[in-house]
Amino acid sequence: MYPQFQKFLLFVAFLMFGFGALIQIADQRNQSDISITYKALHSPADIIALTNPVMPIAYTSVISLKALPVNEKKERFIAMLLPAILISKAKLKEQKNRLNHLLDKSQLSSTDQAWLNQQLSLYRVDSATKLSQSMIELPNSLILAQAALETGWGSSRFFIQALNIFGVWSFDPTEKRIMARQQRKGKSVYLKRYDSLLGAIDDYQLTLGKGSAYQALRIATQQTQNSLQLLQHLGRYSELGDIYIQRLSTVIRQNNLRQYDKYQL
Fold first, then answer.
1. In the CATH hierarchy, which top-level class contains the domain 21-262?
2. For the whole model, what pTM was predicted?
3. What is the pLDDT of residue 198?
């Protein structure tokens, strides 16, 4: 019996390996109801083509698209990024809905208060009203344009090795990060390393949701979801300032990125 049982175990292990690339799990870190597929990439062919609705996939590794023809490179880059963008936005919407629900309560439970305190700390605000104003919705086209510009359409080393989409720096030696090849004012520079594209986009949304640098952007999102208007408030995201804004506008227009604003999970 033992040899047969051993064969059975090997068969089970083979099945588990086969399904290991696609693991359906709930994102417990944010208590989200979204069932997310985490998937590693080994070749451009592994990137699942876009449909609308979009499958909720978060890639945990990426591959360089540099060698692909330009049009195919851009198409596959968008297919890599858009699912994670939509997941991140849906998670943020869930959080805002929870916040609005808490605001309707006359008294908060200890669990509710702990969650609220955590969010206030994350966004660095001192009231639920300010927190609500920080949880902004951004158009897909704007996020895609910044991602394309910051990574060279998926060809940068930071994107490939660290899943760092938006050039986010790291100043904390205890967190996952990668060293830049060039120094800044004689000192080493580090960028954050993420476990998935979803983690990078979550961090990006949080960055734009807090601090004074993007207050005008947050106010503007209450009036419009037009990416060409909203990008006017991103001059402080890059040292290039107005040139950065112009480049974002060009990327959106030339690649018709606003068509993706209609895509949903």
1. mainly alpha
2. 0.85
3. 97
